[in-house]
Fold this protein.
Amino acid sequence: MKILVWNEYRHEKQEEKIRKVYPKGIHEVIADFLRADGHEVRTATLDDENHGITKEILDDTDVLFWWGHMAHGEVPDEVAYLVRDAVLDGMGAVFLHSAHHSKPFRYLLGTSCNLCWRESGDSERLWVIEPSHPITRGIDRSFFLPEEETYGEPFVIPTPDKLLLIGSYSGGEVFRSGCLYERGNGKIFYFQPGHEAFPTYYVPEVQTILRNAAKFVAPTEKIHVTCPHVRHVTDTEGYVIG
């Protein structure tokens, strides 16, 4: 597959404690374990030319991973619309952690995607509620993250087509942590863990889920659907059939 891992790449540049966790950026950690599966993986960041996104790049991408947090507003609408349209045409998309507030995710889901949150050193246990699904294949019934930013309900999203994982926190909150959608011809997976201050993307279970997700949301075919004016078609007996 051809995969593009997009990361706004601001925390790692601006904060030494974050740089110690992800010296080359979150995007390169994700790209490394996807490359290990034999995929052709590129990376892009907010400060790249055209913010790392053009129609030509997306046309040549099977699956897009998107991580953003502090600079959602710096992503131009035209870039967000390119991503939205590419998903509608069949490109797969995986939105990570605080990308719930990214423009492409909100434009695809059509809601605010607001949630409750805090940073207080809570631990999280993620529970698999669809153990037979390809995205959760190879994961036990739950796994533990010693530290993760707490997200809590209500999470203002449309009801997922499939809810694959639920997170529970030591502070008592629960959260829909693995949500699957179809929009147009494309598949979307939202995965909650991945706060920049914690080494979440080095956790084997997290990597397994993201590897699986890349395979699951990948398109079998990309189709741009338009609204053509069509003529009537008749069968051999003269009945109008369309």
Observations:
- The chain has a mean pLDDT of 95.
